[in-house]
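Q: Could you write out the predicted structure for this multi-component system? I'm mainly interested in how the pieces pack against one another.
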Amino acid sequence: MDQETRLQMLHDMLLARAFEERAAEEYTKGNIGGFLHLYPGEEAVAVGVLHAAEPSDYVVSTYREHVHAMVRGMPPGVVMAELFGKRDGCSRGMGGSMHLFDRERRFMGGYAIVGETYPVAIGIGYAIAMRKLPEAVICFFGDGAVNQGTFHESLNMAALWKLPVLFVCENNHYQIGTEIHRHSAVTEVYRRACAHRIPARKADGMDVFEVHQATRMALDQIRQDTGPYLLEFETYRFRGHSMADPGTYRPKVEVQAKEKEDPVAVAIAETLPGYPTAEQIAAAGTDSITRMTDTMNAGGHLPGDTLQRIEAQVAQEVEEAVAFAQASPEPTMEDARAALDCNRGMEVLI
Amino acid sequence: MDQETRLQMLHDMLLARAFEERAAEEYTKGNIGGFLHLYPGEEAVAVGVLHAAEPSDYVVSTYREHVHAMVRGMPPGVVMAELFGKRDGCSRGMGGSMHLFDRERRFMGGYAIVGETYPVAIGIGYAIAMRKLPEAVICFFGDGAVNQGTFHESLNMAALWKLPVLFVCENNHYQIGTEIHRHSAVTEVYRRACAHRIPARKADGMDVFEVHQATRMALDQIRQDTGPYLLEFETYRFRGHSMADPGTYRPKVEVQAKEKEDPVAVAIAETLPGYPTAEQIAAAGTDSITRMTDTMNAGGHLPGDTLQRIEAQVAQEVEEAVAFAQASPEPTMEDARAALDCNRGMEVLI
Amino acid sequence: MTEEVFYWQALNRALDAELAADDAVFVLGEDVGLYGGSYRVTEGLYAKYGEWRVRDTPISEGSFTGLGVGAALAGMRPVVEIMTINFSLLALDAIVNMAAKVPFMSGGQFPMPLVVRMPGGVAKQLAAQHSQRLEQMYMNVPGLRLAVPSTPQDAWWQLRQAIRSDEPIVLLEHELLYFSKGPLDVTAGAPPMHRAAVRRKGADLTLVAWSRMVDLSLRAAGRLAEQGIEVEVIDLRSLRPIDWDTCAESVQRTHNLLVVEEDSGFAGAGAEVVATLGERCFFDLDAPPRRLAAEELPIPYNRNLEAACIPTVSGIVQTVKEMLEGGENP
Amino acid sequence: MTEEVFYWQALNRALDAELAADDAVFVLGEDVGLYGGSYRVTEGLYAKYGEWRVRDTPISEGSFTGLGVGAALAGMRPVVEIMTINFSLLALDAIVNMAAKVPFMSGGQFPMPLVVRMPGGVAKQLAAQHSQRLEQMYMNVPGLRLAVPSTPQDAWWQLRQAIRSDEPIVLLEHELLYFSKGPLDVTAGAPPMHRAAVRRKGADLTLVAWSRMVDLSLRAAGRLAEQGIEVEVIDLRSLRPIDWDTCAESVQRTHNLLVVEEDSGFAGAGAEVVATLGERCFFDLDAPPRRLAAEELPIPYNRNLEAACIPTVSGIVQTVKEMLEGGENP
Ligand SMILES: Cc1ncc(C[n+]2csc(CCOP(=O)(O)OP(=O)(O)O)c2C)c(N)n1
Ligand SMILES: Cc1ncc(C[n+]2csc(CCOP(=O)(O)OP(=O)(O)O)c2C)c(N)n1
Ligand SMILES: [Mg+2]
Ligand SMILES: [Mg+2]
C-alpha cells in the first residue's frame, strides 16, 4: 500500500468519526430528525472495504451508511445536507439519514428494512454477470440482519448463478439491544455461508489494514468469475443503536473491557442527554483509529504533524459540511412530486 | 421391529399407493378438483417417519399430504371425502386436498404456500418446550421449499431455543419442473443445517426401514432436549408435480434409469390423458414398495399370501373410502360460515 | 379510580394483567425482553415472567409471526409484537394466508387466539419506509380483525380483549400515541371490542376518524365550535369489523360525512367508510361524503414536507367549512 | 390483421417482442424457463433467449422480486413472474417498500423499470390460500401502478407498455383468463396504458368491472338487454391510476353505478371506485352506488360453495334489476 492511500484512509477514518459525532450534536440541536444510526467504532470496516473497491463497483448499504457514502466519495456537505433534509442533500431531502443514494458513485442506497440489501445486491450482480462486466457489488449488512430470510435466499441465488457479490457483515454483536448469542444459534456469521458453498472468512474489523487486505483478496477472487464471497468483520459500536437508544442494555463490564480513552467522543457525549455515559463512550478499547495511528507510527508512516494536519483538515471539512447543509434550501412540494415522477418521463397514462 | 409393525407399515405403503392412484382416477372423472399433488414413489418417507412417531407428537405437512394424514391414522374415507369437497371430509370440504387437518390426531394441517410448515412447526415446538412436555413436532417439506426464507429463519430459532422439532426433507429432486441442481447451490439439503448448528443426516428415502430407523434415532435425540434435528430423505415422485403437470420436463433417460415395473401405476396411467406416459410411470426404479416386499421376503416376513391379503384389504379400503366420499353430503353455506366462526365463540364484537 | 397514564403504559399493564392471568399467554418480538420494547410497551415483563414468556426474537418477522400461528394451534395465546407495521409486510403471509385462513380451512377445528401488535403511522421524520399505516392491507381479509385504539383506556381494554379472543386480531397502535397521556380506569367495564365511540356530539357534520386522527379531529371540532359549527366526532376504534350502525345513525342526523385518514386516500381505509356509508346513507346526505387523507406520495424525510403530506387540524377545519358551505347549494 | 389467440399467447408474444427489442429486458420466476411457465406465458422463450434472459428461480419470492429491483437500479428491465398473487405476499416488501419507494427516496435519481406479473383470482377449487385477488394491497401504494388486462389485446399492449415504462408496475392477470381466446391485432395502436374502455354502451346503469369480471358483466348486460335494460360496461383496465373521467362521464349519463368485483367487498378495490365516483357524481346518481362482490369468507374448496362465493352473471342481472327498480322511488 502506498503512503498516499494510507493517508487517505486515515483521513477517511478521522472524517468518519468527526462527522458522526457532529451529526449526533446536530441531532440534539434538532437540526436532524428521524432515526440517526451512527458509526463510531466501526470506521475500519467501511474505510478498509471501500478503499479496496473500484469506482466501477457498486455499493449497497443499510440505514447506518453515512460513512460508507463518504468513503465512497460523496462530499460530507451533501451527506450532512441530506441529514438536515435539505434540497442539496444527496437524496434531495426526501430520503434522510437512512436513505442516501448517489447514482454517479454507484452508491445504490441505504435501505432501512433489515434484509433488503441482499436482493438489491444480487440484482445488480445479476445485471453485471449477464453483461459479463468486470464489476462487483459490495453488500453491507449487520449481524442481526443475517436472520432475515432474504439472507439465505439471496446467498443461494448468488452462489447458484455465480454472481459477483461481496457480502460484508459488520458484526457489531448487537441487533439493537439483543446480543448476538441471543439472536443467532451460530454466532460466527461467516459459517453460515457453508449452507450455500460460498467461500467466507472472518477478519478483525477493528484493524483497517486487515479489512482492506481481506477485501482486496475477496474482490480479486470475485473478478475471476468464481461467484460470491462473504466477509465477516468483528467490530463494535461505541454508541447506542440510534440516537433514540441510550445503549444501556450493554453491561458495564462489557463496555469497560473495551476501555481506552477516546477523547473526542467523550467530550461530545458529555453534552448529550440520555446518551451513553462518558464511561461507556470511553470504551474505545480496540478503537480502530488509535489502532491505525499506532500501526502507522510504528511503520514510520505518520511523520511530523501529519496526524494533526489531517485532524485539522477533517474538522474544517465537517464545519463546511454543516455550513453547506445549513445554507441549503428546504425542498418544496414540487421537488417531492418531481422525485416521485422521475421515472414517469413523458409517458401518457390515461 | 416386530412383525405387526412391519405388516402395518406394508399395509400403509400399499394403501398409500392405491389411494393416490385412485385419487388420480377420481380427478380425471371430475370428482376431485383443484390442485392434486400425489405421492406415488415417496411412500417410504411418510410411512417410515410417521411409524417412528408417538401419538402425542405433532405433524405439520404440505399440499402433498394425503399419505401423511392416512399414516397418521386418518381414515381413508375421511381423506377421500375431503378431496371430494364433502361435508364428512376432515376439513368439512373447506380445505380440500392441500389442507387436511385433524386436531385429534395432532395433524396440524397441510399448508399450500411453500415454506409455511417451518414457522408453524417451531410455534408448536415453542409451546411444547415452554411447557416442558416430552412431545415433538415433525415438519415435512420438499427440496424446493428450503429456498424459502422461512427455512433458515425457523431453523435458527429452533436451534437457538432448542425446540423439539424434527425437520424432514422429502427430497424428490424437483421443485415442480426445476431440478435441484438448478434451484440450490448446495444440493445436499442436510448440509444446510450446519448454518445453524443443527444435527442433520441424509438417508435413503426409498427404503422404509432405513427411514424408520433414522427417524427413531432423531426423535430419541430430540426427546433428550437437545433441540432440533434435520433428516433428508432422497426419494422420487413417479408422477408429475400435480395432476395439472404432465411431468414432461424430466428427460426420458432419467426416468428410464429408475425403470422397473410398477403395474398398478401403469394400468392407471394409461387411462389418464396428458399424464406421464406408461414408460415414465414404469419408472419405478428403486420403487419403495417393491423394495420393501423384497426385504421382507428375504427376511421371511411375508409368509404365504400375506402380501395378497393386504393388497386385497387395501383395495377394499380404497373402495370404501370412495363410497364414503360419494355418499357424504355437500357442505352448505352455513357450514362455511360456521367454519369461519369456529373461533368466535359467544363473543360480542360490536 | 382514574389515573393519567401513557398509552404505552396502558398496553404494558394490559400485557401484565393477561400474562398473570393465563399462562398460555406469551409475548414475542424483537427487543421485547431484556431491552424492554422499542416503545417501552413490554417494560419490566421480562424480569417478571422470564424469557419463555417474554421472548426476544431474531429479525425474522415472517417466521416469528408464523411461530405465533403454530403456538396458537397448539393452544397457546401468543402476542406477537412487530416493531413497526412497515416490517409487517414480511409477516403478511403468516397473518393473511395462515392465521386468517387456518380456522376456516380446517373446517373449524382450530381456533386462532393470536394477537399481532404493531405501531404504524407517520411519526417524526422516519422517511418513506418507516412512515406507513398500511391498515387497509389488513382490512380486506376475511377471518381477521383489526382494532385501532386511540386512547390509553381503549389500548388497555382492546389489547386484553384481543388476547382473550380466539380469533386472530391485529392491534394497530401508533408511534406518536405511545407517549401521549390519557385517563385509565382499570375498574371500568369494557365496551364491545369493535364498537365505535362518539367522542364528541354535534349536529352539523360527522367526522369519522381513528387512531391518531381522532385527536386531530377533536381539536378541529373544538375550533369549529368556536365558529358555530358543531361536528360530531366518531372514533371507529376498529377497522374490521366497522361499527356501521353508530356511523350511520350519526350521518342520518348530520347529513354530512368527512373521513379523516393519515394514509394516502386512494384505496385507503377511508374508501371503505365512504363507500359503505355513501351507500347506506345515500338519501340522508346533503353533500358528497369526503375523505381528507395524506398526499399521494411516499412520506418525505424533510420535516416540512412530512407535515404537509398528512392531515392537519387546520386542514380538517377548512375542509369541514368547505363542505358545509358547498353543501347548501348543490 | 386480427387473429384469435389465447390470453397467455398474447402475453407470450409481448414478452417475445420486448425481449427481442431490448437486451436489457429479462424474465425471471419459478419455472418460467425450461418448463415454459405454469400457464405457458413464457413458453419457448428459454430456448430462444437462453438462461440469463429467461431465468428459472428457486422458491424465494422475496429475494427474486428484490433481485428485480436491484437489476432495475442497474439499468435492466426485469419482468418478474410470481407464480400466483397468493405468493406475492412474500414479495410485498420488495414491491411496496423497495420498488415503489426507491425512486422517490433517492430524490429522483433512480427510475425503476420493473414489471411484476402475476395471476390472481378464484380459479377452480384451489381453496383459500390459492384463491385471492388481493389487488387492493397494491392500490394504496404511491409510486406503484397496477394494470389488470381482461383481453388478449390488452394483455399484449399493457405488458409491452409496462416493460417500456420506467415506473414499477404490477400486471395482474387471471388464472381463468389465460385459456380464454380473443382477437389480437398486433398492428393496432395502443390506447394509453391506464385508460378505461367502454366495452358496451348503455343508458340505464354503469357497470364497472375489471379482469375476469368484465366478461361476466358483458354477459349480464346481454341478458339485461333482452329485458329492455341497457347497461354500460366499463372495463377499468387499470386499478392505479383509475381513469375517473371515463367512469364519471358514464355515470353522469346513466345515473346509476354498480361495481362488480371478484374479491370480498369490504375494503376491496371496489370501495375506492364507489367512494370516488360517489363523491364525484353525487348529484348525478339516482340511487346509492353499489358493489357486488365476493362473500366475506376465505374461498371454500367445495365447488358449489366456491361458485356461490363470487359474483355470477345471474347475480349481476338480479342486482342491476333491484337497483333500477329500487331507484325509482327512494
Ligand atoms: C425488517 C426489519 N425489522 C426490524 C427493524 C428494526 N431494526 C432496525 S435496525 C435493527 C437491528 C439491526 O441489527 P444489525 O443487522 O446487527 O445492524 P446494526 O444496527 O447493528 O448495524 C432492527 C431490529 C427493521 N428496520 N427492519
Ligand atoms: C411460496 C410459494 N411459491 C410457489 C408455489 C408454487 N409451488 C407449489 S409446489 C412448488 C414446488 C415445491 O417443490 P418441493 O418443495 O420440492 O416439494 P414437492 O412438490 O417436490 O413435494 C411450487 C413452486 C407455492 N405454492 N408457494
Ligand atoms: Mg449489529
Ligand atoms: Mg421436490
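A: Regarding packing and overall arrangement: Confidence is low (pLDDT under 50) at residues 253-278 of chain A.
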